[in-house]
Amino acid sequence: MKTVLAGVTALAASMALLSGCGSSSSEEPGKSGSGAGTVTLTMIVSGNKAADGQDFELDVLPKMVNEKFPNIKLEVQKLPDDQYNTSIKTKLAAGEAPDIFRVWPRMGSAASIIDLSKAGYLADLTDLPFMSNISDGARTDMSNDGKVYGITKGIDMLGTYYNKSLFEQVGITEVPQDWDAFLAACQKLLDAGVTPIVMGDKDPWWIQFGAYQLAANTVYSADKDFDLKLQSGEKKFTDETWVKALSMYKELYDKGYIAKNTLGLGGPQATQMFIDGKAAMVFDGTWDFPTLTAKGAADFERGFFPLPGNQPGQPVWQAVSTAAGWAVHAKSKHMEEVKQVLNYWFDVESDLFAEWVKLNPSISAFNGVPLNNELYKHSYELYQSSGNSTYFANQMWPNGVADTLQVKFGEVIGGRKTTPEDVASAMQAKFDELWKK
């Protein structure tokens, strides 16, 4: 989901961090205390270490893999999101990629399934036995030209995390069901001296968290095939619906409903404000459940609802998408051992699969696995029953269009004279430039 604008400094730092973590190799007898015949597999993923308890990828996965396969040692590194995409593309180009690494569905990132499979970097995973247990949509989103190249973490939803105590304190008795009601709730909070919403816009990908939810209710509710028509030239970002979504988002900043100076707040700072009870809401996704439900300075019950960008009397649409996941380097020197690990991990009867489901913040895309997080029950049931949803918009755009959205809307947040029409025009210009390639 998170689109990266990494600089030279970040690239240099990440390359230094990653040195020596390229393609795997068998260790020599007696080295690292592992004994003869040990195979070391490497894995690099994005994100932050779990705030509370064990991190599945860093702690649980390597331990359980080694217990199951004593001859396999799995080394895992987790990089901050603002470094990962640049780092993995550099490693792939240099032929030093890890055996397993993070990828995004469709075209949703610089490390996307479509871009990396076209470049020949990804192994074909179509015939792995557990693939038939993954939902058709999730499997398709991790495919290209009829071949499956990735395994998703699950299904992710964008939404609004909220502080139930602050809502009750100011007399908001029910979750807003439309845009007018949402604006009224924000005003009620503001009038009571409560910051309605906090965002970490210093990390520019956060701008997408609200924009895509509003676009779901203006762009894709009116035409679910908007992006296909964008690609064919029938539609443009400058059409009324995208301008409307951007204008609605601007309204939240103009009215002071989103905390001031968010361009100076990174994601961790915004999250801390929310869990400390200093803001009533934050726009984010299911993947950030561990950090947004961590213990802060205030003790309160969390809730979660889709940002209702719909008009009164119209249904709310949600931004729901196949999540990022894992792919295998096409030139891994230990493909057999990699597949052993994957077949164990994603076998629905295995102890490792059960542990993964328990710790995975994303909603499972495996058939028959029930929702294990009550926080998302309302939104998930609405998604299942209504079908009023769309993928995260950047998954159908060439990499770079979302960057333009972030940069230009950042100018709006920063108080420059940039208008929603200017943002839409810049997005269209970047799309035209990249799509021709």
UniProtKB/TrEMBL annotation:
This is ABC transporter substrate-binding protein. It comes from Cohnella boryungensis. The lineage of its organism: Bacteria, Bacillati, Bacillota, Bacilli, Bacillales.
